[in-house]
């Protein structure tokens, strides 16, 4: 009998503990608006309870189930006529109940000191390890996620890792690898660096269009480059001011294969240092699009048309690339937007062409071949130079289209934490380029409202068949900035996996988790 009672008690205690854990997790995962509603409800209930207790206390003590005040009044009625109820004298009268102390402080009053507020006024506390685990670990069990699930959450101010779910395991990052690509390029070239597309004179009657690696060169910019070239030729910029020329093009800046391992794909043109509008055959600026079979000779032909329109007679346009002579006279040049703007565009719209160009700029800056292999080595070395954890990482490309890429979640959060910190201001474009949930870039159509992270989550997305990743920053409900990376591989539910990662990020944003 006694054993049965003990077991029953233990079961009751465990049930109570489970209920407390569920309540705690629900609280930590709740949005600030939900928490405020619960606080007001609980506060109202507490006020009602206090008022009731105060009223009972004021009425007097109890004795054998009857308030002594009632017994006194009954006795008083028996001793008197019952007509004079206003007298304040006599043995049967009871003093008025004392006024209750205020239950709620005046609006605008100073809050009492509490955990995390004892010092450093205005600095919100970070989440606790237990609190964050309570909020996020159940979400990591979502059935839509693949069998491989890794995660890292880091407090941006202190650099302390708050959540570690196999975060050191290198996995396929998809487009979140662009964070590494952008950081490497910004570190190597600097945010103000601009990529030049030049036109040089290559002997009498010949000009060469030299690709510098700017995939964003537009038709309008090419038109201006042609007009500037025509003006230089007509003004007699050496060798008699010839206005009859042949046109060649130079793609020698890059080496190795131009075609990505995925083959012909609307997500990426041939990786060449000379192209117009990323080789797109439509008017789009980003996203999938039909591409020129070979963007470089297509750019040369477009340049020829514009040069002719500017009054220069073109006798021939090369169909194969040539190499401009060293020290050739420059006739005209176009400089791209600053590298900071290119990095932002690559991240906001997950632009694969720009990402591959950034990877090669890193290689060129560090004296490595501007190829897939050269960029792999250069990006790794550049990140290591920044003190980032690159063990097990592989950068088979700069865009994340390759399934041979490998990046651990801990590297992504380390990259973001370094960009947030003040020691490397050149990396700030990585943060300003992150899509804003519900508003910009690849997150514009995700997160339908604030409770689900709209306007609160800034993150780089990554999606391949069977792969979903998300890495970025949030400011949590207490005002603390956190960086995160959530990664999964092997999912068969692309939409469900993306929604699960979105829920993880929005829960992090809405969570004080203490």
UniProtKB/TrEMBL annotation:
<keyword id="KW-0645">Protease</keyword>
<comment type="similarity">
    <text>Belongs to the peptidase S13 family.</text>
</comment>
<keyword id="KW-0472">Membrane</keyword>
<dbReference type="InterPro" id="IPR000667">
    <property type="entry name" value="Peptidase_S13"/>
</dbReference>
<keyword id="KW-1133">Transmembrane helix</keyword>
<protein>
    <submittedName>
        <fullName>D-alanyl-D-alanine carboxypeptidase/D-alanyl-D-alanine-endopeptidase</fullName>
        <ecNumber>3.4.16.4</ecNumber>
    </submittedName>
</protein>
<dbReference type="Pfam" id="PF02113">
    <property type="entry name" value="Peptidase_S13"/>
</dbReference>
<feature type="region of interest" description="Disordered">
    <location>
        <begin position="62"/>
        <end position="124"/>
    </location>
</feature>
<keyword id="KW-0812">Transmembrane</keyword>
<dbReference type="InterPro" id="IPR012338">
    <property type="entry name" value="Beta-lactam/transpept-like"/>
</dbReference>
<keyword id="KW-0378">Hydrolase</keyword>
<feature type="compositionally biased region" description="Basic and acidic residues">
    <location>
        <begin position="68"/>
        <end position="88"/>
    </location>
</feature>
<keyword id="KW-0121">Carboxypeptidase</keyword>
<feature type="transmembrane region" description="Helical">
    <location>
        <begin position="40"/>
        <end position="62"/>
    </location>
</feature>
<dbReference type="GO" id="GO:0009002">
    <property type="term" value="F:serine-type D-Ala-D-Ala carboxypeptidase activity"/>
</dbReference>
């Amino acid at each position: 009998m006694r054993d049965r009672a003990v077991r029953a008690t233990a079961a009751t205690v465990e049930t109570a503990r489970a209920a407390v854990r569920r309540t705690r997790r629900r609280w930590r995962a709740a949005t600030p608006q939900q928490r405020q509603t619960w606080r007001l409800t609980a506060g109202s209930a507490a006020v009602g309870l206090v008022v009731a207790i105060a009223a009972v206390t004021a009425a007097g003590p109890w004795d054998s189930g009857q308030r002594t005040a009632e017994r006194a009044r009954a006795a008083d009625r028996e001793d008197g006529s019952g007509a004079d109820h206003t007298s304040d004298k006599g043995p049967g009268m009871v003093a008025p109940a004392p006024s209750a102390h205020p239950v709620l402080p005046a609006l605008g009053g100073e809050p009492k000191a509490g955990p995390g507020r004892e010092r450093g006024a205005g600095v919100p506390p970070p989440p606790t390890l237990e609190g964050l685990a309570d909020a996020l670990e159940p979400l990591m069990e979502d059935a839509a996620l693949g069998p491989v699930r890794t995660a890292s959450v880091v407090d941006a101010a202190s650099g302390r890792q708050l959540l570690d779910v196999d975060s050191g395991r290198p996995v396929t990052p998809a487009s979140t690898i662009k964070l590494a690509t952008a950081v490497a390029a910004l570190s190597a070239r600097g945010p103000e660096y601009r990529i030049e597309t030049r036109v040089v004179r290559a002997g009498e009657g010949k000009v060469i269009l030299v690709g510098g690696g700017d995939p964003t060169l537009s038709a309008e910019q090419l038109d201006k480059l042609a007009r500037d070239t025509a003006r230089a030729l007509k003004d007699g910029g050496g060798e008699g001011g010839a206005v009859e020329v042949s046109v060649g093009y130079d793609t020698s800046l890059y080496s190795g294969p131009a075609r990505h391992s995925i083959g012909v794909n609307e997500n990426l043109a041939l990786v060449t240092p000379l192209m117009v509008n990323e080789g797109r055959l439509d008017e789009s600026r980003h996203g999938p699009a039909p591409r020129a079979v070979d963007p470089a000779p297509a750019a040369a032909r477009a340049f020829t048309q514009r040069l002719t329109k500017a009054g220069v007679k073109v006798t021939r346009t090369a169909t194969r690339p040539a190499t401009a002579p060293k020290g050739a006279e420059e006739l005209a040049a176009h400089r791209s937007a600053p590298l900071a703007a290119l990095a932002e565009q690559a991240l906001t719209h997950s632009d694969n062409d720009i990402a591959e160009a950034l990877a090669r700029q890193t290689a060129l800056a560090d004296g490595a071949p501007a190829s897939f292999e050269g960029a792999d080595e250069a990006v790794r070395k550049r990140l290591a130079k920044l003190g980032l954890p690159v063990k097990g990482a592989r950068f088979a490309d700069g865009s994340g289209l390759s399934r041979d890429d490998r990046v651990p979640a801990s590297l992504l959060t380390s990259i973001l934490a370094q960009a947030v910190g003040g020691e490397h201001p050149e990396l700030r474009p990585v943060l300003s380029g992150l899509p804003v949930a519900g508003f910009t870039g690849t997150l514009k159509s995700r997160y339908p409202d604030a409770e689900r992270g709209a306007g609160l989550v800034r993150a780089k997305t990554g999606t391949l068949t069977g792969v979903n990743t998300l890495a970025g920053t949030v400011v949590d409900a207490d005002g603390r900035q956190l960086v995160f990376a959530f990664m999964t591989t092997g999912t068969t539910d692309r939409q469900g996996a993306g929604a699960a990662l979105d829920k993880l990020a929005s829960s992090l944003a809405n969570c004080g988790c203490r």
